[in-house]
Amino acid sequence: MSQAATATEAANTNGGVLHPLGEKFNPNTSKPQNLVGWLFGGTGLALFALMALVGLLMRFTQADTVGVSPEWFYRLMTLHASGMLAGALLSMMGGLWFVVRAVVPGLSLGRAIASWLAIVAGAVLIVVAVLIGGFAAGWTFLFPLPFDASGQWSTWAAVTFIIGMGLVGVGFMVYCIDVLKATTQAYGGLSGALGVKWLRGKDPTGPPPQVIAATAVTIQGVICSAVGMTIVMALLDHTIDGQVALDALWAKNLTYFFGHTIANLIIYLAAGMIYVLVPLYAGRQWKLSKPLAIGWLFTIVFVMTAYSHHLYMDFVQPGAPQMISLVASSAAAIPVAVVTIYTGMMLIWGSRFRWTLTSVLLYLGFAGWAIGGSGAVIDSLIPINFRLHNTLWVPAHFHNYLMMGVGMWMMALVSYMLERAAGRTASRRTTIWAPLLMVGGGYGFIFSWYISGALGIPRRWAVQPIGTENYSLVASIFAIVFLIGFFMLLLEFFSLARTALARRREAPPEPALASIAGASTEADLALGNAPEPLLRSPFGIAVTVGLAVIASFALLPPISEASEATIGFHHLAHAVQFFIGAMLAAALASTPAIARRITPRWTNIGLITVILLPAGMLLFMIPAIYTDIEDENFLHASYHFVVLILGFLLGLGASTLGRTAGWAVLISSVGMGLMFAAGVTGG
Predict the structure, then answer these.
(1) How, if at all, do strands 244-246 and 680-682 pair?
(2) d(Cα 112, Cα 96) in Å, to the nearest integer?
(3) Residue 571 · residue 676 · CB < 8 Å
């Protein structure tokens, strides 16, 4: 059959939804993929819609056209930021999972659902804390503000909000561990899944681009979530025992590392999705290339080191992190611009791009990322940052790439699934007018912020400086225009959904979905995906045991002696004990006799273990627990033995996750103890 005939047949089967040549790139989706796509994408889009209305109310308040009190403004600001991030995160997690599952069957449906449940539960707790408890400290929950509320909210509201944010981090960590485990097992370890083996000529084909993106994002996500859990547990410890003292600069570093990194990773989750969706409308495959593989390696470094540009004005912050962040924030734009945005434009150029509602949204998302990213890089330059960072320039740039970048891709994910299920494209009227209204309204809304920021109008003010209210009023009018386009889009989505349901009723019944609990285990067993041991050789086992011995006899005694003087060293001693237990377990679980007994059936238990035990270890470091037993030798020794056992159980749990995911969890969990010791004292 000729290429033209094949293209015509493909166009007939997909109802003209895709490019005639794009059908061969269209992933053969399974029920788990569709379930995750609908669940994550739909939930994220619903949160986006609700939080957009909250944001509009805030802008009208700043325009002095509605009578929302400052107390409620800051509550709404806290809710809006937290809810938008949770919604965008959910959508892009679902989008990446949707496209990666086609080439990595070992991904677990059950663990994806568990991550969704954790994030949704976290979002519900945040709503309760804000709307019922009155919590209004902002999504950053910077210490000591959550506990110094001047009577505006009670401690239970602060604790509820902190636990909610912790659950968002837990959900993201579950997702990241499972995706990292699956991609590295499917593509020959971390170096294989990141394309390093292909770069070195040791892999003839290399992984698909979406696998490289998924691996790079999830290894950062494990670290990011561990940092977030550290500050969350430190704040909860302070709630339980008021004598627990946190270093404020330490707390701010950890909070912004968590918040800034997870916000950035939302965009990179989306990048993995568009590597698959854009070719469907261009009729050209997004192929693996050296710039793409190298760019993602640099992106890992840049994203993990850019956060402290939020701390330029903290004069006590050491200068080295500031310089590192300056370089990383500027350099991060190079892989983005060259690898994804430029390559995407070249893929589309001259391709006879199939313009549908989905493909228009995908294309517009590139513009939002590029323009918003430029605004972010400008703000990250130290001299300019001192002028702009506490102004409305900052909400301008992050709304630019989240609302007009990721927001467009959130809508594109749902639109793609609906158009595909309905077998038709959206109406021409919606395809033209909805994006047009959203672009006109969205950029008018955002550039009113850019202009306001350049003029020095401050951000996070419920009441704007006298004479500047009109900027908020203009922004509010543009926001209404955006929402008209957005709700026009939602109406079209309902129409597509009705068509899809009618089409589904006429189609033959599909086979039943495998049970959620057993989906991943069955796939892993079928593929022979038993987790690789953490250590490959007797030499590696010997080195790991040696590290535990050295820590026991060379590090622990002087640290324990110093702990009599300061609580910080006491916490460091706990971290070393946790490390010793983890290393011994890693060595034991890697011995042939034990390793062959670890099957995929243990993965869920291992995952629960590595999530709960590090948090439990930090919760165990409350002076109120151990100060009363310091004079009781047996009880005190038993306490330290329990810490060691927690580390040992962590090592066993990590061994069920495979080499890459297991070590990522193991190292980040031990790092949680070390970070905790660096910033938490008192008692």
Answers:
(1) antiparallel
(2) 11
(3) yes
Q: What is the mean pLDDT of residues 499-507?
A: 83
Nearest to 416 by CA among 360, 365, 482, 368: 360
Of 263, 216, 269, nearest to 95 by C-alpha is: 269
Number of alpha carbons in the 13 Å side-chain half-sphere of residue 315: 0
Number of Cβ within 10 Å of residue 517's Cβ equals 12
Integer angstrom CA distances of residue 618 from 380, 564, 669: 33, 19, 10
Contacts of 444 (CB under 8 A, 6+ apart): 474, 475, 477, 478, 481
Write out the two tokens for 611: 């999530």
- What are 54-108's pLDDT values in tens digits? 999 999 998 888 888 889 999 999 999 999 999 999 999 999 999 999 899 889 9
Contact 152, 75 (CB under 8 A): no
d(CA 389, CA 268): 24
Q: Tokens 């402290």 correspond to what residue? A: 308
The distance from CA 328 to its chain's CA centroid, rounded to whole angstroms, is: 19
C-alpha to C-alpha distance for 219 and 303, rounded to whole angstroms:
12
Could you tell me if 296 and 195 are in contact, meaning their C-beta atoms sit under 8 angstroms apart? yes
Alpha carbon distances (Å) from 444 to 48, 523, 573, 676? 19, 49, 55, 44
Rounded (5°) CA angle 660-223-602: 45
Token pair of 182 as six digits: 């699956």
How distant, in Å, are the alpha carbons of 6, 119, 338, 608 from that of 163? 54, 11, 39, 17
Domain chopping of the chain, boundaries: 30-503, 530-682
| Digit-coded pLDDT (tens) for 81-96 | 999 999 999 999 999 9
CATH of domain 30-503: 1.20.210.10
Burial of 584 (0-12, 13-18, 19+ CB in 10 A): buried
Using alpha carbons only, what angle is made at residue 518 by residues 512 and 521, rounded to the nearest 5 degrees?
Answer: 125
Identity of the residue numbered 649 = L
User: Which pTM was predicted?
Assistant: 0.91
- Bridge partners (DSSP) listed for residue 682: 244
C-beta of residue 103 within 8 angstroms of C-beta of residue 138: no
The Cα–Cα gap between 501 and 147 comes to 50
pLDDT band of residue 507 (cuts 50, 70, 90) is low
Using CB atoms within 10 A of its CB, is residue 683 exposed (0-12), middle (13-18) or buried (19+)? middle
Tokens standing for residue 408: 């467009």
CA distance 254 to 247: 11
**Rounded to an integer, what distance in angstroms lies between the CA atom of residue 31 and that of residue 205?**
28
Count the residues in the chain. 683
Half-sphere exposure of 383 (CA within 13 A, CB side): 0
Biggest alpha carbon–alpha carbon distance for the chain: 86
DSSP β-bridge partners for residue 246 = 680
Contact 264, 223 (CB under 8 A): no
Rounded Cα–Cα distance for residues 287 and 296 (Å) = 14
What are 212-231's pLDDT values in tens digits? 999 999 999 999 999 999 99
Cβ contacts of 23 within 8 Å, gap of 6 or more: 10, 11, 13, 14, 280
CA 366 from chain center: how many Å? 19
Contacts of 185 (CB under 8 A, 6+ apart): 106, 529, 531, 532, 658
Beta-strand (E) ranges in 47-122? none
Give dist(CA 657, CA 635) in Å, integer: 34
- Per the listing, tokens 């570093």 go with 253
